[in-house]
Queue: 4 jobs
Job 1
Amino acid sequence: MKRPLLAFDEKGIFCEPAGVYLDPWRPVDKALITHGHSDHARWGHRQYITHHHNKPIITSRLGTISAKGISWGEPLLVNNVKFSFHPAGHIPGSSQIRVEHKGEVWVFTGDYKLEDDGISQPFEPIRCHGFITECTFGIPAFNWRPQEEVFHDINTWWRENKEEGNTSVLFAYSLGKAQRLLKHLDQSIGKVYTHGAIENMTSVLRTFMELPPTIPINKDTPKAEIRGNLILAPPSAHGSVWLRKFAPFVTASASGWMAFRGARRRRAVDRGFVLSDHADWSGLLKAVKATECETVVTTHGYTEIFSRYLREELGYNAYTQHTEFEGDQEENASAEDKETA
């Protein structure tokens, strides 16, 4: 049986003809990285290659590394294998990786979404023979509302809290989700204050994109000035001594998991907004169809359910592969998110 152009081993997704890995989870010599979330961009590789907008993100998170940034669609030849990065729409700087060798084309998605969030380069469908896709939200229960409706709800919630004399605390992952929220918050309502982890990452993103103003919270910030305004904080700040200083406040979480009944209660927040940086069920199906592929490999999320549907209902050669990707990073606070302001 012919070995696929992209195969899986104990270190990650391996392209044997080129001798390179895609988003490896063990240290390797040459790693092509889709985006900056910690389960896809790990420390310890000898060389990192990524989109040039993702380069400052991973260097800020990983420290001193050997990293090269390239543009969308720019060809990268390694041992006669042609690689290129294409927009994934997941977060700023996120890419799909296209791999071509001897007429065979595979695409690895990393994480992605189809809705244009206003800060990320929108998802670009790529024709291929083999498609390696995430399916974090790969069951029919996940069906996202248009983001304009969700942002209207968030801004209404903030306005009502302010009228009642409460500060609004909105929990979001520091890379991607926080900046997406910031972009669409109605700052005519009030000011946006930030936890240190979110401010640090927002500062990195400001080096290549425009974002609305924020006020970082530090030990000298007058607490009385924050009241009635909005605080963006990572999930790890929930219940912390740092947060309790800003009472009275009302809390909320912005996550795709808020679509599950009981998720808000488990997170102990007052309000949940269904907003994800991953594709929903229909988005996943639309992405697969647009590739015109023959083979689909599901890597993380509802892998068995999604691959079975593709195989039994739609006729794809679809199967699952185990990886160490963690799906929705909003569930997994990184060390950076655990910093205090």
Job 2
Amino acid sequence: MGTKTSNRTKYLTKIEQLEQLSEQEIADLKEVTNKFAFRANDYYLSLIDWDDPDDPIRSIIVPHLQELEEWGRLDPSNEEAYTVMPGLEHKYNSTALLLVSNVCDGICRYCFRKRVFMEPQSAYLRDVPAAMQYIRQHSEINNVLLTGGDPLVLTTSKLENIIRQLRQIEHVRIIRIGTKIPAFNPYRIIDDPTLLEMIEACSTERKRIYIMTHFVHSRELTDAAVKAVHLLAKAGAMIANQTPLIRGLNDEPEVMAELLGRLSYIGAVPYYIFQCRPALGNKAYTVPIEEGYEIVERAKSLVSGLGKRVRYTMSHSTGKIEIVGRTKDYVYFKYHRAADDANSGRFMVYRSNPNAYWLDDYDEMVDDCRISLP
């Protein structure tokens, strides 16, 4: 369940610090870490069974030579097109996204924001007052997502400064914090009562704070992680979980079902299963869409209604698109959320392509239907 017992965390940012690897493995993987950043901590590494080459925690955090396969792009969802200023994105009408940190407690090998760690000084929010001014001037924004990097890497005082300013903007009703800290380092939460006090103060009856956890395998749900989730909920936060579908990690229905079930038990309600984005170096981690749909549906058949609420979606450049069904010849998609409101709720039918990893891989749309907006 992990040997770490406090937040006096030791971080590793060089592959040669992994004493469990051989000299040859370190030499081979340096080519990977020269291209894509490596970061881990002693708590998360303690969860790995180093005698198992297919250990799921190892596959999440330890670099692999497969990342050198040329495939994908640095900004797979074209976030740059929706960037108002460094660290502030406004893609959807009612939602603003603030990249408040350029650091994570660990870097998932299939991360879709590798550019944040490759260019850490240019891809996060530095001008908080300007961002607040923009949000004040756009009354259509009723929810703000804090992300990064990981917002909980910030000191509580820095995070509180941002959250309290958002709470002073009347039309901002929801604040979401996207974080993998409960999985990567739950002691950041357990050992910091001021963080929980801040959550309690800022999550009110009519304006909730949502913690969007990123558990991707049930092995991450250690006693400490479950306690961290419990404390956040006890402080008044609403907890929802989102996970990418990753080849070799959670792409077996039984494995995904176990994760969905255990998340439901602890109150981290399954929210999204994301199609792994076609980011640079991600080919070996990605499952084709139609295969992914079958995996997700079989997993959902094994869990109760709470687990079944999860939606299988892709964060496409044009919006969040849900994969809603397939037949022998066709695949069915719906815009769950669209950057262009004219596409909201749009239903699309494409001819099947078992080798498609992203919407752009489908060549032939055979039908579509847009809803009538008022």
Job 3
Amino acid sequence: MPNNLIRRLIILGGLSIIGIIFVQSYWLLKTWDIKDKEFDQTVNIVLHNVAERMAKYNKTILPKSGLVQRKSSNYYAVNINSEIDAGLLEQYLSQEMIKQSLNIAFEYAVYHCATDELVYGNYCSPNNIDEKSIKKNKKLPKFKNLIYYFVVRFPERESFLLANRNMTLTLTILSILAIVFFLYSMWVIMEQKRLSELQKDFINNMTHEFKTPISSIKIASDFLANNDNVKEDIRLNRYIQIIREQNQRLNEQVEKVLNVARLEKDSIELKKEIFELNKTLEDIIKNESLKLKQGNISFKNSKEKININADKLHFVNVVANMIDNAIKYSNEKPIVELSVVDAGKDVLLGIKDHGIGIDKESQKKLFDKFYRVSTGNVHNVKGFGLGLFYVKNICKAHGWTLQLESEPGVGTEFIITIPKSLTA
């Protein structure tokens, strides 16, 4: 995965997290505010009803304004124009709380004019909670501007409001878990990216180091092959040929790894030039035919000369890779057919074999890096699984399309479509 893409994912992920936290915080505060207003309205209704019942019982008239006053978030004062019976007050408060479905504990106190003190009444809990575990506030504040009044305090207001927000809290917890999971995932991705870069650097450095001994072996084997004494000794000459062939094979594999490394870093540069397609393909076939002990490679060229503008080195590597694969996955006598067809707007280059073919499932992964088609228990096909990955990316870099047609037991054909707009 490119560094720029990871950087964008982190930025977008960070902005998403900030957005989620902002929205979640906003809705938490909004929900709290709504629940608080609902609580306040319900308490006002309860206390108004209690005040009206007390006034009716005492046959007095209630004040026209300032009847219920909220002194703090959980503390209310009720101003009435008559003396208050504490026992009756507690009864009315409990009844009205039940009517309004306000299932919350409360404590109350009544102002006594003679002593100028608030006389603590009682702590009332609808849930039969052990009162010893409750922190009672027996010294409730009084108010100078009121004469006949009682106060009510709700010590468990916060927990009551939270208890009615289970869904909101659940969503908040899920959001936090999602954020934590995202952050952990990003950390894992970055760690995997770091390890992947280390692995790639190691492979690339190791592959580059191979180039020096490969070159040295080639020079030494060429020198020995030209030695008259070696030429006269059939056995030594055969050994030298084996060294040269295996050295060439090793060099080709190293080049594949280096080319793939360049592709992954987007550092591969196409050095385009104009060359004749048919002539270039004939040269490739001559070189590849030397690898064949049996079978043949045929070529059906177009009648007209076709010049294309492409990187000749990579083009040769692409065609050679596909011919090499056709030979590897054929039977004892490989038959490979190359063709060039002028299809009007496009030039079609086909490489066809009559080998073992590729099943539908394998075709989906065929161009993936390091993927190799299974050949059962036979392991005579060598390679790293980089050839077709390289082919696909070179075609993509040139703006060509690559098609695959294959049937198990019948054979495989690759078709490269080169638009004439991209030719010379």
Job 4
Amino acid sequence: MTEPARSRIGAVTEPARSRVGAVTEPATPHVGAGPAAVHLHQGRPDGSTARFEVLDNFSLRTRIGILAALVSAVAVVLVSAAAFVTVRVAILQSLDANLLQRASAAAQSELADPRQLAVIPPGILGAGDIRIALLFADGGGRSAEGEASAPPRGPEELAVARGLDDASVRTATEGGVQYRVVAVQAGPGQALVIGQRLETTQQVFTKLGVALPVVGGIGILVAALAGVTVARAGLRPVDRLTAATERVASTGDLRPIPVDGTDELARLTHSFNDMLGGLAASQEQQRRLVADAGHELRTPLTSMRTNLELLAAADRPGAPTLPESDRAEILDDVQAQVAELSTLVGDLVELAREDAPLVVHEPVELVDVISGALERARRRAGDVEFVATLVPWSLMGDSTALERAVLNLLDNAAKWSPPGASVRVQIRPLDEWSMVLEVADAGPGIAEEDLPRVFDRFYRSATSRTMPGSGLGLAIVRQVALRHGGAVWAGRAPEGGALLALRLPGRRAW
């Protein structure tokens, strides 16, 4: 019973496979079935994963549509194959059960002898496409109209007639026509064989094999269109982000992008806005640095130019002679201005590294750093005395930058201390993992309104504008503290002057 149906159904399934292939095969070149069309890279210099380069020629929306079509194609092939096999098996099982029921009922009927049933025309059984025959154990048989009305018979039916099997079911072909043939025992040494033509069943299989690929192809097309539509709607925030990026690149406009929702794209936009804010802050910082540096450089440069012009005018023929004392004073002023410019330029270079990461990670003994800074400060502080109370302290950091910060604190204290005064330098542990370096002078102290701003770049109080300095020393101290994970603050010292504190992490060295 299964063989003819298998050949007939094979004629149906092969076109179905070709139809499904017609749907899936065109999509395959898009992902690189041909070796000449696509190169699949296993490794990339930038560390990205392997991919099909041919997809780079399409937009992201198109790629999502292609991906949706491919996934739909795979699903359609699997579902169509499963549906076809399921329906085919169900129809054949129903047909077999019906034929076996008819044959068993006819063979076991008490109203008719199987030998008489074999000679009854098939129409009596209510089916014109059925053939009936009685098969004997010796291979002979009887039918209503002879061999012309006999169903196909073979070893399977003969085994039933000989009592080797209770029943048989198979598909057989005779005269180019396929039959579903069943055989049941109809008494000792004989079997009742019934065969039914499969033309109607084959038509159902053919229609099913055509309908499934057609419906599947429509589903693939709808899935591709839906993928492109969903991609267009979902990638709209990406379009806004792209437009904003192009706007920033072409105009330098750092305005933030409006954000809607809380999904991943909204988070990406928030991150981009944070980046724009940081870039805007950096630009503003650079602008203020240039403006403040230009303002601070203008005064010494103007004074130096005036002095140099005066010296040049005195050397011209016929000009009044410049006294030696005045010439020496002017030269001293020029040297002082050059030194001031050198200090200012050095401080600007140091501040230009404000956003640079801390790349030096070496053990630093803070006592050694402070001792080195004290030696340098004492050489240029005149008669100001430094009284140090130090506690061994170790940390990881940059010893050069730390010594520069401590020296700036000491120089600032010496500048504001009256002659013969003392500057207190003390390390005071806060806990097991942090300490404070306090530098207290005996000067006039810092006004309350100036305390929050003394560590700002170029900030100079009204009382300090006539004193030497660039307003960058304490800004460098704050920079070094932040780079080492610390902090700085200012206040009033018990001695009556200013108290500048530098907090640093680390641990006590025993």
